[in-house]
Amino acid sequence: MNLRIPGPTPLPLEILKVMGNQMINHRGPKYEAMQKEVVKKLQKVFQTENDVFLFTSSGTGGVEASITNTLSPGDKVLAIAAGVFGDRFAACAKAFGAEVVKLDFPWGQAADPDLIRKKLKANPDTKAVLVVFNETSTGVTNDMKAIAEVVHESSDALILVDAISGLGAIDLRTDEWGFDVVVTGSQKAWMCPPGLAMVSVSEKAWKAHATAKMPRFYWDFTAMKEFAEKGQTPFTPAITTIFALDKALDMILDEGIENVFARHRRVGEHTRSGVKELGLELFADESCASNTVTAVKVPSDIQADELLRIMREDHEVLIAGGMGRLKGKIVRIGHLGYVFEEDIDEVLEAMEASLNELRR
User: Fold this and answer.
1) What is the pLDDT of residue 191?
2) What's the domain count of the chain?
3) Residue after which a domain boundary falls, among 253, 287, 305
4) Which of 6, 41, 177, 299 satisfies CB 3.0 to 4.6 Å to 293 for a cystine?
5) Whole-structure pTM value
6) Pairing assessment for the beta strands 196-201 and 181-185 based on DSSP bridges
7) Which of residues 195, 223, 253 is at a domain's end?
């Protein structure tokens, strides 16, 4: 099966092999050395000198941690939303008692920094800005450098970033651009199975953490830092996934992070070009189209579920459907992690054959 959803992503053979390693003591010296080395490698890809923590969870657990560790009930946050995951970030903050000011953008378009500036000026007491780097529900990547510049110019707000489906594939300069908490997930560009949320924490975020009063236990940054100094986590880690991440980071760094970004850019362009050659229309504005997932409008004479079924059953190619209000209206091709042009060629061939079959 050619698995081309936005995550989980296919695992390289080298990573499958290390996942067969026997368990080790997560309080012992071998694990300690591995975790400390993994964190050092992660800092290189995050492009940060900040603390980086390993939570055993989905990426959404890391998103929750970014909120509960830096905010108190009643704090005002500006939630930038242009898709399902922007809405989810806002909903998470609201669930913990934050006062959420939502700034919605049309799905398929990127967030407009000028409108963010205006909203911040109208809400000078904003404590944090919540933003999704790469919105997989629409196939859009936000201009994070421009957003960061606007936030820093207009306020003293924290910037909390859901970078789950972008970090490791698309350039995100955590320290240079000034992000306070950045979250990603192992099952995306990192070529690993689900099970880890990796979270970086800035000095500014630590200052906010010192007075934050939202409830937390499992997600507590203070406990994570205490144990990280010993090369451990407070609770049992996903050891097999950390074996995988250790190897994946070696592969990423051996390729070179700039080369990894370039490969994803090349494969993204190849995917969008191929979709248009089939006579199909892209959902996202190409000026902000993601290099990790391509959203494709389903033609009016085609049922999305049937297209997905035929591709899966007849051609062994698995892509994703639409989410939320886009269910039945788009399909999504994932191209992140261990992916090359030939993988996408197989997807496009299966899509063309399936469309022809449905139109007979």
Assistant:
1) 98
2) 2
3) 253
4) 6
5) 0.98
6) antiparallel
7) 253
